């Protein structure tokens, strides 16, 4: 099955010059359409649980007619993804990696703890820290007509809308 994020999902991107920006996954459209798309994609890094990592692969598709998405909300933001997409959660005292379809209110997702501003602040991606935020709502819905993206990274994780998620089919350990 596919592990996909909607095109409006925001990721942190670092280009070959070192410039960092927040971009939606829709920014990948021109690269996916280009003949040299893989070469273009290799010029960018994306933020993951350990810092910056390379894109492994990016696939774009439309959802099937009745294929649901799951919108998961926390106080810090929300993310919409397919039911098979896995996320690290804290459920009570347990740390688990579960599909989006199994996330429920009361679970906690790992949210990027952004570095403080100032001259002595480390650059984004240098000292990665995440903190748990409680899930307020997990809602299943259909009818999304935009593109969805299956993103693989070398690390197997990705920071999306400030939340830590896994990449398709990746196996990894929860950060301690």
How do the helices and strands line up, and which of them pair or pack?
Blueprint: E1 5-6, E2 10-14, E3 20-24, H1 29-33, H2 37-41, E4 45-48, E5 51-62, E6 69-74, E7 77-82, E8 86-91, E9 94-99, E10 108-112, E11 130-141, E12 147-153, E13 157-160, E14 163-166
Antiparallel strand pairs: 1-12, 2-3, 2-4, 4-5, 5-12, 6-7, 6-11, 8-9, 8-10, 10-11, 13-14
Task: Describe the protein's architecture and organization.
This protein has 176 residues and is mainly beta. The chain has a single domain, classed as Endonuclease - Pi-scei, Chain A, domain 1, CATH 2.170.16. 6% of the residues lie in helices and 48% in strands. It contains 2 helices and 14 strands. The chain has helices at residues 29-33, 37-41; strands at 5-6, 10-14, 20-24, 45-48, 51-62, 69-74, 77-82, 86-91, 94-99, 108-112, 130-141, 147-153, 157-160, 163-166. A 6-stranded antiparallel β-sheet has the order 1-12-5-4-2-3, with no helix packed on it. The mean pLDDT is 88.
């Amino acid at each position: 099955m596919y592990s996909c994020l909607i095109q409006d999902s925001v990721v942190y991107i670092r280009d070959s010059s070192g410039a960092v920006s927040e971009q939606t996954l829709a920014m990948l459209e021109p690269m996916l359409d280009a003949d040299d798309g893989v070469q273009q994609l290799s010029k960018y890094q994306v933020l993951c649980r350990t810092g910056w990592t390379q894109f492994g692969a990016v696939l774009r598709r439309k959802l099937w007619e009745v294929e649901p998405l799951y919108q998961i909300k926390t106080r810090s933001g929300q993310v919409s993804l397919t039911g098979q997409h896995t996320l690290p959660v804290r459920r009570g005292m347990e740390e688990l990696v579960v599909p989006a379809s199994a996330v429920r209110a009361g679970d906690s997702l790992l949210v990027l703890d952004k570095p403080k501003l100032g001259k002595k602040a480390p650059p984004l991606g240098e000292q990665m820290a995440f903190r748990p935020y409680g899930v307020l709502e997990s809602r299943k819905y259909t009818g999304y007509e935009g593109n969805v993206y299956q993103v693989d990274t070398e690390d197997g994780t990705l920071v999306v809308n400030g939340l830590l998620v896994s990449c398709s089919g990746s196996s990894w350990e929860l950060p301690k």
